[in-house]
Specification:
Blueprint lengths: L1 H13 L17 H17 L8 E4 L4 E4 L7 E5 L2 E6 L7 E6 L2 E6 L13 E4 L11 E4 L1 E6 L4 E5 L4 E5 L4 E5 L13 E6 L4 E4 L25 E2 L6 E2 L6 E3 L2 E2 L9 E7 L6 E3 L13 E2 L1 E3 L5 E7 L4 E3 L6 E2 L7 E6 L6 E11 L8 E6 L8 E4 L7 E11 L4 E10 L4 E4 L6 E7 L1
Parallel strand pairs: 21-26
Antiparallel strand pairs: 1-2, 3-4, 5-6, 7-9, 8-20, 9-12, 10-11, 13-14, 13-19, 14-17, 15-16, 17-18, 19-22, 23-33, 24-32, 25-31, 26-31, 27-30, 27-32, 27-33, 28-29, 28-31
Helix pairs in contact: 1-2
């Protein structure tokens, strides 16, 4: 009976909720009624256990067994200071994915720093969904997308530490409202930011971009909400963003450095923008615009305007826009002065009767009246057609919206020709 007494003592020590009425010690003479009472107590404990449904985790329920669960895939028993433990899932933080399966939990990082600058955003702004690098023209777009490119991570600062956000589904976007405080004015430059979850467009709260900021214009950032800085290894807002719209929702106010700058765009119409690389030839030119620019992961791109007017005469020895059209130009936007651009042009000129007029073609930057920054002259006193080219006029890095304009100077009996032999102006840059 000593062995049985040991079992009873062990049972009592292991589970305070199952207590035998008689404590028997070694050498003590066992009484049958005491032994039976102990057996009955143990039997009652076994009858009362286990608690809960099948596959529940057993706990001390304060006088008997109790069950937690049954647990689902990936659930754990988590303590609760105010009561019994509860089943719960792990919660994924920023840059983490948790995969739950029968008998396993897999925790993986979804983002990692990309190549280039340490901690650089890994996506690209685009006007075409699912297309981080556009290969076709997009005009009148009322949305901008941020797609995965070298990765899906985006660094951001939460006010205390730098964290890695993720481009959910490899694309996040915003649509510009047509009305309301989130609507965007035509003809202005706007910045796109990431706030840790969404992308948003910074404004003055009344539809203006850079032009509405103190000291700002379409060619210069202001000193307020349009100012950016790099103090965390990536570009952020240098001033508090009171108004930053994702659609009609104002994500502001956003503290200093807590919005990651992704790029800029120019509105070709109210709440709309465009990106045109090779529009269809047209009389007088097409005035395409590379109106979207990425702060990171830029790629080279070119854009060309082609005037298909068969021919036109210009008898005056004074500079004017080619074909007397301000549409013989290409515009582009840059958010920061990172890269130079190269402009080019092609003219076809006929100086009839050998008038020695020295007609010419040229390229102007941001002007339709000044003497061109670069020109090519047809020095001819002989009758005939001449092809005049400007192959690579280097333009230093600038910010904001700019344009290159094809220019011409004529003379008596001078004729200019459009495409395919002339009437071309273009630019090569990065976006």
């Amino acid at each position: 009976m000593g062995a049985l007494a040991g079992v009873f003592v062990g049972a009592s020590a292991a589970s305070a909720a199952c207590t035998v009425p008689n404590q028997l010690t070694n050498g003590q003479t066992a009484d049958a009624s005491q032994v039976m009472a102990n057996f009955n107590a143990v039997a009652n404990c076994v009858t009362a256990a286990p608690g809960g449904a099948t596959n529940s985790v057993q706990i001390n329920g304060g006088g008997g067994f109790s069950g937690v669960g049954p647990l689902q895939d990936g659930q754990l028993v988590i303590g609760a200071s105010s009561g019994a433990p509860v089943p719960a899932y792990l919660t994924a933080g920023s840059g983490i994915t948790i995969t739950n399966a029968p008998g396993s939990i897999t925790v993986t990082a979804t983002t990692s720093p990309g190549s280039g600058a340490s901690g650089a955003p890994e996506g690209r702004l685009t006007l075409k969904t699912g297309t981080p690098v556009m290969s076709v023209d997009v005009t009148g777009s009322t949305s901008v997308y941020y797609d995965c490119y070298v990765g899906k991570g985006v660094p951001y600062y939460n006010g205390s530490v730098d964290l890695w956000g993720s481009i959910g589904g490899c694309e996040i976007s915003t649509t510009f409202p047509a009305t309301g405080t989130g609507a965007l004015n035509a003809g202005d430059v706007f910045d796109v930011f990431f706030d840790g979850v969404h992308i948003c467009v910074a404004t003055n709260g009344a539809g203006a971009g850079w032009s509405g900021d103190t000291g700002g214009s379409t060619m210069a950032r202001g000193t307020g909400y349009s100012s950016v800085q790099n103090v965390r290894g990536y570009e952020t807002n240098a001033k508090r963003l009171v108004n930053c719209y994702n659609g009609a929702t104002n994500e502001g106010a956003i503290g200093i450095n807590q919005a990651t700058y992704l790029g800029s765009f120019f509105t070709t119409a109210a709440s709309a923008t465009s990106f045109q690389m090779s529009p269809t030839d047209a009389a007088g030119g097409t005035a395409p615009c590379l109106c979207l620019w990425n702060a990171y992961n830029r790629v080279r791109v070119g854009s060309t305007s082609r005037d298909n007017t068969p021919s036109w005469t210009y008898a005056t020895a004074a500079w004017r826009p080619a074909d007397n059209s301000v549409l013989n130009r290409v515009s582009w936007v840059q958010g920061l002065p990172f890269e130079a651009a190269q402009a080019f042009a092609q003219f076809n000129i006929n100086d009839f009767n050998g008038q020695c007029n020295s007609p010419a073609g040229g390229i102007n930057v941001d002007s339709t009246t000044a003497t061109p920054n670069r020109s090519a002259v047809q020095n001819s006193c002989n009758y005939g057609n001449w092809s005049v080219s400007i192959p690579g006029y280097m333009i230093p890095p600038m910010i904001g919206l700019h344009f290159v304009q094809a220019m011409e100077v004529g003379g008596a009996n001078v004729t200019f020709y459009g495409t395919p032999t002339g009437g071309v102006v273009g630019i090569d840059t990065a976006y």
